[in-house]
């Protein structure tokens, strides 16, 4: 008994010594977490530490920034690494706030102050009150301290049940507040511009956007509802919510902590809504971080992740060329290549929800001065729109039962491509599915419980293109016609004609074509010829059916932005070859010349709003683009050479 008592006494003594050792660095009774730095160059030790403390940033020299609660910090000290305790980012200054009274009394919101908690709730509710036909505000959970977790659902009444579902959220680390205000502003921007901006109208008609500006209000308002100064990374239980998710490699609780109320609410919310695309906004550095966070093997869609991440960064850099250069020159990174993180929401969403979610690190300052928030909006809001539109591209369709017409839950998998749960499912309620994908040719299989048939489709798709591939299970489903087509050319001058060739399978007997911007605008011929009289990028849709098969709906395919019509005074590329990539003149008034050592495969120009104003596929080393009729201003020029993109800023003058 004496030996047992002595053993217990020794353990308690060591525990008290460890606690005292940690307390000499930081008083945990005030905030519950410590913010500190240290250096470690041993990767194995760093990976061990990720399971104990919350790594926030790691540079190439092994300098680490981290957070920890008292238990985690005590364990950290056992590694005999000397920490440097830092001033928490939210306590570097007293932040400008606006109260509920300010919100209702001010006629103009300049978005240069942080809302109190009460003002935030009022704003979220007023979005629905002021725009009931476009916005639904919901409360999908409560926090540890019973604050509300809220989201706005933005969409129009068009195309019900046939829309991509996109989830944008911010500030699951309570002291990372840039995205908090920017997402509030994004909701306001989308709603107030819907009536006048065709681009935003198109988004509302083809997407359902769910926006949660603050995923951890307990952390943000740690010192009270009227101030973000003193905000903490963790929730009220001192848990890092971005290490608190189930993980297929490291188990249900990688952080050793119970799922928090906020985590449970988001897991249920995401499972219910079945999002197709997601963005989780953080702060502390500037980079777009894509999966995986927990392991080295790349995702099946790594080339797509890099493509959409680079588009985000390049668009933001139009106004700020130095933005997002803190970690990598490109502004993008694979999560694991940066540092390992177990239990992140990004990995959870991708694996368990089959939702393509990335993490946006939007600002070097976690809690920046409120006066800087408008700058971050100016740099990012065009990229937000591009990201939303990426969800509208790829392979879309509806899966139904031929006999009943009811929706079918179906597994959609790409042969020889998908891995680690990268396949997707059609929704059991609507039958709709979305498969984001990089340009290429893919063979998809469709399988559904209760049906013996496995349906197979081969699809060729370009970047920024949507192909609709509807699927039917039931009566003779494999023998129903499958729509497909090609054009003899996809880039033409104004006034030129395009010949379309039907490539449909299973011998259709009827064809219904729709040609956006073409003459004729529709046709029932099998292989029609169409003339384009106006410049732009135009969709083509083909619906096929068979008189022989009595049952089953017609099959439709739509190729978005398929035909690129160039103004008559444009100059097409010639065969001249030059040694290196050159763009001249710049600034320019009438024409831009592009020359490269290798073949230029694609040329794209986007305006200051991130909208594509010119696109051309190419197979020579030289391109001349007529810009005489373009509005003067700053544009983004993107060229594809050897399957890699190069982005440059060009200026068009009067």
Please, could you describe this protein's structure?
The chain has 654 residues and is an alpha+beta fold. The chain has 14 helices and 36 strands. The strands form 8 sheets. The protein has an 8-stranded mixed beta sheet, with helices on both faces. Helix 1 (2-23) packs across helix 4 (70-77) and helix 11 runs antiparallel to helix 14. It is globular. The termini are far apart. Residues 1-18 and 571-579 have low confidence and may be disordered.
Any low-confidence stretches, pLDDT <50, length ≥5?
1-18, 571-579
What proportion strand?
25-35%
Number of strands: 36
**Count of helix runs:** 14
Strand order of the largest sheet: 7-8-10-9-11-14-12-13
- Principal-axes geometry comes out as globular
Residue share in helices?
10-25%
Rg result: 27 Å
| pLDDT averaged residue by residue | 89
Structural class: alpha+beta
Q: What is the terminal separation in angstroms? A: 93 Å
> In this structure, how is the largest beta sheet organized?
8 strands, mixed
Strand and helix map with partners:
Blueprint: H1 2-23, H2 28-31, E1 34-39, H3 43-49, E2 54-58, E3 63-68, H4 70-77, E4 84-85, E5 97-98, H5 100-105, E6 114-115, H6 117-130, E7 135-142, E8 148-154, E9 164-170, H7 178-193, H8 198-206, E10 207-212, H9 217-220, H10 261-273, E11 277-282, E12 285-290, H11 302-316, E13 332-334, H12 335-338, H13 345-352, E14 356-363, H14 373-390, E15 394-401, E16 411-414, E17 424-425, E18 432-435, E19 440-447, E20 455-461, E21 466-468, E22 471-473, E23 485-487, E24 491-493, E25 497-502, E26 510-515, E27 518-519, E28 522-523, E29 529-532, E30 536-545, E31 555-566, E32 582-584, E33 591-606, E34 612-626, E35 633-641, E36 644-652
Parallel strand pairs: 5-6, 9-10, 9-11, 11-14, 12-13, 15-21, 15-22, 24-31
Antiparallel strand pairs: 1-3, 1-4, 2-3, 7-8, 8-10, 12-14, 15-18, 16-17, 16-19, 19-20, 23-25, 25-29, 26-28, 26-30, 27-29, 30-31, 32-33, 33-34, 33-35, 35-36
Helix pairs in contact: 1-4, 7-14, 11-14
């Amino acid at each position: 008994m004496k030996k047992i008592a002595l053993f217990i006494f020794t353990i308690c003594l060591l525990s008290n010594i460890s606690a005292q050792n940690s307390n000499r660095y930081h008083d945990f009774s005030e905030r519950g977490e410590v913010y500190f730095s240290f250096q470690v160059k041993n990767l194995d030790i760093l990976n061990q530490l990720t399971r104990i403390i919350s790594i926030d940033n790691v540079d190439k020299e092994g300098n680490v920034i981290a957070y920890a609660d008292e238990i985690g910090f005590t364990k950290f000290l056992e590694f005999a690494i000397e920490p440097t305790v830092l001033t928490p980012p939210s306590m570097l200054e007293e932040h400008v706030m606006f109260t509920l009274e300010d919100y209702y009394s001010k006629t103009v919101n300049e978005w240069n102050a942080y809302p109190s908690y009460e003002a935030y709730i009022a704003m979220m509710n007023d979005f629905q009150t002021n725009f009931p036909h476009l916005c639904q505000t919901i409360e999908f959970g409560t926090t540890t301290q019973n604050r509300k977790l809220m989201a706005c659902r933005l969409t129009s009444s068009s195309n019900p049940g046939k829309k991509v579902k996109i989830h944008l959220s911010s500030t699951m680390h309570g002291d990372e507040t840039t995205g908090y205000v920017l997402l509030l502003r994004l909701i306001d921007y989308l709603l107030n511009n819907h009536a006048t901006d065709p681009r935003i109208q198109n988004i509302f008609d083809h997407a359902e956007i769910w926006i949660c500006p603050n995923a951890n209000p307990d952390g943000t308002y740690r010192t009270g509802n009227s101030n973000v100064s003193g905000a903490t990374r963790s929730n009220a239980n001192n848990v890092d919510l971005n290490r608190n998710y189930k993980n297929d490699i490291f188990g249900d609780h990688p952080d050793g902590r119970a799922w928090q109320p906020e985590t449970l609410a988001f897991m249920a919310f995401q499972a219910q809504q079945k999002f197709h695309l997601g963005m989780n906004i953080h702060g502390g550095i500037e980079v777009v971080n894509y999966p995986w966070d927990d392991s080295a093997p790349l995702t099946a869609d790594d080339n797509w992740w890099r493509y959409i991440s680079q588009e985000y960064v390049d668009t933001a850099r139009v106004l700020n060329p130095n933005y997002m250069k803190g970690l990598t020159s490109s502004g993008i990174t694979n999560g694991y290549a940066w540092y390992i993180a177990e239990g992140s929401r990004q990995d959870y969403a991708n694996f368990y929800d089959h939702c393509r979610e990335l993490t946006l690190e939007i600002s070097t300052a976690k809690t920046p001065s409120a006066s800087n928030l408008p700058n971050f909006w100016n740099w990012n809001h065009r990229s937000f729109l591009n990201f939303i539109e990426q969800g509208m591209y790829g392979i879309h369709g509806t899966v139904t039962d031929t006999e009943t017409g009811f929706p079918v839950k179906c597994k959609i998998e790409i042969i020889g491509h998908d891995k680690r749960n990268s396949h997707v499912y059609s929704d059991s309620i609507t039958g709709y599915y979305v498969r984001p994908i990089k340009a290429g040719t893919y063979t998809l299989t469709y399988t559904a419980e209760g049906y013996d048939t496995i349906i197979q489709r081969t699809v060729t798709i370009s970047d920024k293109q949507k192909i609709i591939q509807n699927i039917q299970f039931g009566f003779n489903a494999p023998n129903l016609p499958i729509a497909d087509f090609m054009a003899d050319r996809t880039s033409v001058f104004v006034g030129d004609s395009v010949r379309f060739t039907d490539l449909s399978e299973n011998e259709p007997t009827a064809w219904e074509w729709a040609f956006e911007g073409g003459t004729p605008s529709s046709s029932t011929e099998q292989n029609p010829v169409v003339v384009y009289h106006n410049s732009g990028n135009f969709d083509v849709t083909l619906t096929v059916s068979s008189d022989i098969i009595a049952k089953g709906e017609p099959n439709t395919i739509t190729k978005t932005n398929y035909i690129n019509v160039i103004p008559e005074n444009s100059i097409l590329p010639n065969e001249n070859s030059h040694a290196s990539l050159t763009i001249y003149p710049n600034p320019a008034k009438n024409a831009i010349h592009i020359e490269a050592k290798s073949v230029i495969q694609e040329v794209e120009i986007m305006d200051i709003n991130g909208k594509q104003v010119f696109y051309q596929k190419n197979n020579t080393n030289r391109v001349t683009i007529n810009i005489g009729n373009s509005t003067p201003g700053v544009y983004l020029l993107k060229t594809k050479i050897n399957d890699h993109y190069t982005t440059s800023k060009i200026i068009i003058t009067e």
